[in-house]
Amino acid sequence: MNEKLRHIIDQSYTVFSKYKVTVPLDVCTECCLTPSQESSLASMSVKQIPFELLYEYNTAAKTELPGIEEFKHFVPRFLDLTAELQFVHHSAELILSRFDYYNKDEWTKEESELVQNYAIELFGYFLSIYPLPELEKIDAIIVMLYKAKVDIKEVLLNWKKAISRSSILHLSDLICRGFKGAKNELLSSPFADEQISKIVFEWLHSDYELVKLKPKIEEIIMEPKEIDEWKLNEIDWTYEKLNELDFKRSKKE
Fold first, then answer.
1. pTM for this predicted structure
2. What is the pLDDT of residues 156-171, one digit of tens each?
3. How far apart, in Å, are the Cα atoms of 227 and each of 36, 165, 174, 203, 224?
4. Which of 35, 55, 76, 88 could form a disulfide with 13 if both were Cys (CB 3.0 to 4.6 A apart)?
5. Of all helices (H) and strands (E), which one includes residue 187?
6. At a CB cut-off of 8 Å and minimum separation 6, what does 231 contact?
7. Using CA atoms, how far apart are residues 242 and 134, in angstroms rounded to an integer?
């Protein structure tokens, strides 16, 4: 985790510290969590909640509309563990899905800006790691952040700044394996909806700044260390797609 991301997470513990919880929590204690686990969640310092306990809480059954103050109480730990590459859900796309229950106007400006800055920094950090834990793909991370109701376009626009071997490998995964459908314009993730698919598809075909990644792709093609033939073919295809984008840009100019 880089210093800027750590600072944002530390800040989140302060920003969300005003939200308190008491038993009973909005969680199933019949078969998902024990009363003892529920009591521990409500009484311990948010920063000290262990991964296993938050995982059980996050995947447990809940009511149709859980109280937002309870979720905000736990938000910093969700952000913290995710940045530590500890995924508190069996599907990466659903790690932050509790945000989905609430409207944007239920968050203060400070809270919204903090989560947006977190999303940008977290995504940049994930682009520096390949492969991701549990072999998760970058499209799953995109959907995860989309479910946190951040401006995902702003997050994606920072990809061009991540000029590294790992970011190229993630880009080739997205281009070559991240889409499905007759027109190859729907994200492959079963948790993606049409809106996020459209955002990502249109970004890939309109962000001309992505061509800045071409020199790094050329380096990888020339020195494909520890890259098998199949993956190298995908990188070649990614390079061709960026060539098409570059040509499109030149025609527009």
1. 0.94
2. 999 999 999 999 999 9
3. 48, 11, 17, 27, 5
4. 76
5. strand 186-187
6. 169, 172
7. 28
